[in-house]
């Protein structure tokens, strides 16, 4: 299990450690399926941002990521930051903001999302858009 | 779900899809001709200068009406209407500012706000009135803002609402007290012979 806040800022190396691709800026999430799909890597202000599909990442450790460099340009969905996003239930009520999220580095499955109102299991996530992270709730006024 | 919401607080609420994208903001709430329930919303764009949208949101397309957002299933919930039609609907369906008359013929006030049930119901529950002195006795230097339950026998014609005279017996000026009294009013309306 790995936390989003831990992964952010870790160095990304190529297999063998020969080359350094940059540092992790953010993780792109597909909230409907509850998975991390892409890793956004930043390599200094002149090189801009590289998008790596999670399939090209071979290992995620406490001290860095090992990933194959992308062959061409990766097609990625628009990025929404999960950390800090507003949480909204499907009943249209706000439930704080996202503090952190835990995911499985092997397959990218999100295990839980930690919000200011408590923990939300990943199977409750409905979608992450430009306004909020929408979560399923059993009934109004409950998370 | 029985959550009361004031219609004036719905203006500027974001319209959010279940995917988390905000697609518009609520501009006006449109009611049906007899003021029974919400029939839809007119919309504005999301930015400061975007102005009214040539689309509106019919009530059946609303997934849930909450305190912080109007939830819809997807972007396709909005349906295209010409701006002139949207504006006309909003004018015909507005209740705010309408005169309120009892069926005995007394003018009791004007509508300041409308309380509706949130969630998937959208039913009109009560009106908040700027009450005339016939309805609320007391100091004439005080402004009286009271809640009047909608009542079953209400009818609306143009900009005038007619409420049953017995509904004025359930007038309150605080919302929690009103919720309890409205229940009593509804129960009595059911048990009374027609």
Topology:
The complex is a heterodimer of chains A (143) and B (194).
Chain A: E1 2-3, H1 4-7, E2 11-13, E3 20-30, E4 35-42, H2 44-47, E5 49-53, E6 57-60, E7 65-67, E8 86-89, E9 94-103, E10 110-115, E11 118-121, E12 125-128, E13 133-135
Parallel strand pairs in A: 2-7, 8-13
Antiparallel strand pairs in A: 1-9, 2-3, 3-4, 4-5, 6-7, 8-9, 9-10, 10-11, 12-13
Chain B: E1 4-6, E2 14-17, E3 22-31, E4 38-44, E5 52-58, E6 62-65, E7 70-72, E8 79-80, H1 83-92, E9 99-102, E10 107-117, E11 124-131, E12 145-149, E13 155-157, E14 160-163, H2 175-191
Parallel strand pairs in B: 2-7, 9-14
Antiparallel strand pairs in B: 1-10, 2-3, 3-4, 4-5, 5-8, 6-7, 9-10, 10-11, 11-12, 13-14
Organism (chain B): Streptomyces griseomycini
Pfam family, one (chain B): PRC
Protein name (chain B): Sporulation protein YlmC with PRC-barrel domain
Short description:
The complex is a heterodimer of chains A (143) and B (194). Chain A is mostly beta strands and 143 residues long.
What is the helix fraction of residues of chain B, given as a range? 10-25%
What fraction of residues of chain B sit in β-strands? 35-45%
Overall form of chain B: elongated
Topology as H/E string of chain A?
EHEEEHEEEEEEEEE
Would you list the SSEs of chain B in sequence order as H and E? EEEEEEEEHEEEEEEH
**Number of beta-strand segments of chain A:** 13
Query: Poorly predicted ranges of chain B (pLDDT <50, ≥5 residues)?
Result: none
What name is given to the CATH topology of the largest domain in chain A?
Answer: SH3 type barrels
Distance separating the two termini of chain B: 28 Å
As a percent range, the share of strand residues of chain A is over 45%
The main sheet of chain B comes to: 7 strands, mixed
The CATH homologous superfamily of the largest domain in chain A is named PRC-barrel domain
Mean pLDDT of chain B: 81
Q: pLDDT average of chain A, as an integer? A: 89
Query: What about the largest sheet of chain A?
Result: 7 strands, mixed
* Rg over CA atoms of chain B: 18 Å
Question: Judging from the principal axes of the Cα atoms, what is the shape of chain A?
Answer: elongated
Number of spatially distinct domains of chain B: 2
**CATH top level assignment of the largest domain in chain A:** Mainly Beta
Number of strands of chain B: 14
Domain PRC-barrel (chain B): 94-165
Protein name (chain B): Sporulation protein YlmC with PRC-barrel domain
Organism (chain B): Streptomyces griseomycini
Organism (chain A): Streptomyces griseomycini
